[in-house]
Amino acid sequence: MRRIDYRHQTVIVTGASSGLGAEFARQLAARRSNLVLVARRADRLQNLADDLTRTHGVTVTVVARDLGLPDAGRTLRAELESRGIHATGLVNNAGFGSHDPFRDENPERLQSMIALNVAALVDLSHAYIDPLTSAGNGFLINVASILGYQPTPYLSVYGATKAFVLSFTESLWEETRGTGLRVLAVCPGAVETEFYDAAGSQSADYGSKRATVDHVVKTALDTLDRRSAPPSVITNGRPLALASKVLPRRLVVSAMGWMARRAMHA
Question: Domain Ketoreductase spans what residues (predicted)?
């Protein structure tokens, strides 16, 4: 499969107001892709859009929207296409987590997490699977996590949502092979983003060194560009994922719980 020509792409990036989403936008704009930036914080999106347009001369459309609402993908596609914007790439990055014992979690926050991390990602992927495939050079990136490889006590629902994203995306990779559409699950370990503020912990990195957003996104795009790209890529924290494959399940779960409790009391 030939390398992606980013100059002829229009890419939707969700969760683009900060962190990995903003960095995906920067690196795609540097490759001359036009962009659609989606998140709730309109002011941050507009500031980023203005900077990318000024620096790289690309067209950047801002959509301030809560993707946790029902039918997120279908309504977004309908709105964009009514404005003549036809996406050829999609980066599903929007999501959040919380770092607490399950019994102490706010049930409404859990519902919002599942709606955004899982339901919105599925709806967006389904809404755009056909146009991305027919583009001939399209791509779909879903941001999972290293925590998707094993149970994660005290991040139980977040980890489970990322396990879903990993499994779902790798399945799509197989279903779409030979169509020209590239599909990739990106699995970062600990990353220097606002995630820890939103999750309620500054140290829930499970013993791995935090990577920069630049490293994670560059690794993702370089992997996507391989002649024979894999269905997923671990950008950092690989030993944690490998351990989950070779150690007894009970030991893995207990070790993850120990690390989480240590992080919570650090």
Answer: 9-192
**176 vs 52: CA distance, rounded Å:** 32
Residue that is written with structure tokens 């799509």 in the block: 172
Residue 229 pLDDT: 94
User: What stretches of 134-242 adopt beta strand conformation (E)?
Assistant: 139-143, 182-187, 232-234
Please write the tens of the pLDDT for every residue from 154-164.
999 999 999 99
3-class state of residue 72 by DSSP = helix
Neighbours of 83 (CB within 10 A): 10
Q: CA-CA distance, 171 to 236, in Å (whole number)? A: 22
Which residues 6+ apart lie within 8 Å of 130 measured at CB? none
Options 6, 128, 154, 158, the catalytic residue: 158
Q: How far apart are CA 181 and CA 79, in angstroms?
A: 23
Domains and CATH numbers, the chain: 6-264 (3.40.50.720)
CB 12, CB 90: distance < 8 Å: yes
User: What is the distance of C-alpha 122 from the center of its chain?
Assistant: 12
Could you report the per-residue pLDDT of 244-256, keeping only the tens digit for each? 777 677 777 777 7
DSSP letters spanning 4-57: P-GGG-EEEEESTTSHHHHHHHHHHHHTT-EEEEEES-HHHHHHHHHHHHHHH-
Annotated catalytic residue 158 = yes
CB 18 within 8 A of CB 3: no
- Contact in structure between 213 and 260 (CB atoms under 8 Å): no
